[in-house]
Write a structure and sequence with these properties.
The protein is an alpha/beta fold. It has one domain: P-loop containing nucleotide triphosphate hydrolases (Rossmann fold). The protein is built from 13 helices and 10 strands. β9 and β10 form a beta hairpin. α2 crosses α4, α4 crosses α5 and α11 packs across α12. This is Phosphoribulokinase. InterPro entries: P-loop_NTPase.
């Protein structure tokens, strides 16, 4: 992956490596096997879990301070594996006696009617969920505040969004987290994104043909400079799943959609998916350049979608993009 990556990589702390090997070979062995089966992962994924997923969970566990709620952000482009990683970390932390909770930026999208109104008042492209400006950021802040201040008897409702209906699940059907929270895992494809500092010229056909004035792009930038910054600043530790480039993200997202069509018979065709991903391309490319310079932990993915290296607490420059 080039000299930048090779010179910047550091290993997990020795005590984390030792504990990870011990647990993977003893009482967590069956847990790992069940996780792989439940998530329909390939059998050789156990190596990735033992080399990266489990050490990361243990490393985060050691970052937690008694009596405080640690907010961990997990950022990465579409199809990088954020949900799988979050689920595994939460499972392992629970096995280690921590009260853990996960929620996603995907679960705080504005309702369908709210986005429809936004598309009429600001720009038609805002009808499509995903980009900054299409989330209820205040709902995210309120949820984080409730989780971080929760006590033993607290009941905190966690927002949910139904992508099959392109609308938020009614609040009376949201899952409820009971009790205090030691660690919150907040994941999202644009988590930690910053406003673009480059000239806002079109970078793909969507921007060129459907945002000729640049007003959609300017609105997104304004959002990232506003309330989104407040939400992102609530993250104590940022973990990034770093793809080798935008081309890989296009490919992995297409594979996700193919599996969805095979499983449910529904899903976007390739041309529809290309246009959909182009909504996120600008921010994703900026994240690939910017976030490796400051994230607390970076997991570098190869083109085969497997994690190839880890960097902890060092600045090593950009991902390929």
């Amino acid at each position: 992956m080039g000299n930048k990556l090779e010179t910047g990589i550091c290993r997990w702390p020795e005590e984390v490596i030792k504990l990870s090997r011990e647990l993977a070979g003893t009482r967590l062995r069956q847990v790992i096997g069940s996780f792989i089966q439940k998530h329909q992962l390939p059998a050789d994924f156990s190596h990735e879990i033992e080399a990266y997923y489990l050490p990361l969970a243990l490393w985060l566990m050691k970052r937690h301070k008694e009596g405080q709620t640690l907010v961990v952000g997990i950022s990465g482009g579409q199809g990088t594996g954020k949900s799988t990683l979050s689920d595994f970390i939460c499972l392992i932390l629970a096995k280690q006696g921590f009260n853990c909770c996960t929620f996603s930026l995907d679960d705080i999208y504005l309702t369908h009617s709210q986005r429809l109104q936004l598309s009429q008042e600001v720009h038609p492209l805002l009808r499509t969920r995903g980009v900054p400006g299409t989330h209820d950021v205040q709902l995210g802040l309120d949820t984080l505040d409730a989780l971080c201040s929760a006590g033993d008897q607290s009941q905190v409702s966690l927002p949910r969004f139904d992508k099959s209906k392109d609308d938020r699940v009614p609040s009376n059907l949201w899952p409820v987290h009971s009790g205090k929270v030691d660690i919150v895992l907040l994941e999202g494809w644009c988590l930690g994104a910053k406003a673009s500092i480059t000239p806002i010229r079109p970078i793909n056909s969507l921007e060129r043909l459907e945002d000729t004035s640049g007003s959609w792009r300017r609105f997104i930038n304004q959002q990232l400079e506003g309330i989104y910054r407040e939400l992102f600043q609530r993250v104590d530790i940022m973990v990034m799943l770093c793809a080798p480039g935008m081309e890989s993200i296009f490919e992995w997202r297409k594979l996700q959609e193919q599996k969805l069509r095979k499983r449910t018979g529904a899903g976007m065709e390739e041309s529809e998916l290309d246009r959909f991903i182009e909504h996120y391309e600008r921010i994703t490319r900026n994240l690939l350049i910017d976030m490796p310079n400051w994230a607390d932990c970076i997991l570098y993915l190869g083109e085969d979608h497997h994690i190839r290296a880890v960097s902890i607490g060092v600045q090593i420059g950009e991902c390929k993009g």
